[in-house]
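Input record (one chain):
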Amino acid sequence: MRQPKVTATIPDTPGEFPETIDWDVSTNELMLGAGRIGPVSHAMWIYQVSGKQVIRQWFSYRKKNRERPQIGDRRPPSPLGDIQPDHWLPEYTEELLNVLNVLGLLLDLEPRQADVLSRIVEGPLVPAGKVGDVEKSA
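The corresponding structure, as predicted from the sequence alone:
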C-alpha cells in the first residue's frame, strides 16, 4: 500500500479544530473535521492494541474536546490539563502520518509473524529439566 499523505488539509484555525475522526470506506481516507489523509486501509483503521483502536486513541489526546467522562470518585483534574492548543498543530499531522506508516508496516509483518509463531508452536518441546542440557549442546 502507498504511504498515507494529506489529501485535504486539516484546518488549523480554532473554529475548525477537529472534534471527530472517522474512516471513509469509499475513499480509504481518514476524515478529521474537514481534513483528509489517505490511503488508510480498513485494517489500519481498526488496528487494536490492548483492546483499543490505535488511531481513535491517538486522536482522543489531540482533538478539540479532550475531556474524559468522570467515572466514580476521582480527584479533580489538574489545572495543567487546561493548557492545550486552541487549534490543530502541524506536529499532529506529522505524528499521525508516522502512526499510520507504522501501522502499515506492522500489518505487512503479520504474515511472517504468524509463520514464526506457527513454527514455534509446532516445534518440539523442551522439558524444563532439560533446558540446561539444550544450552550446553548449542
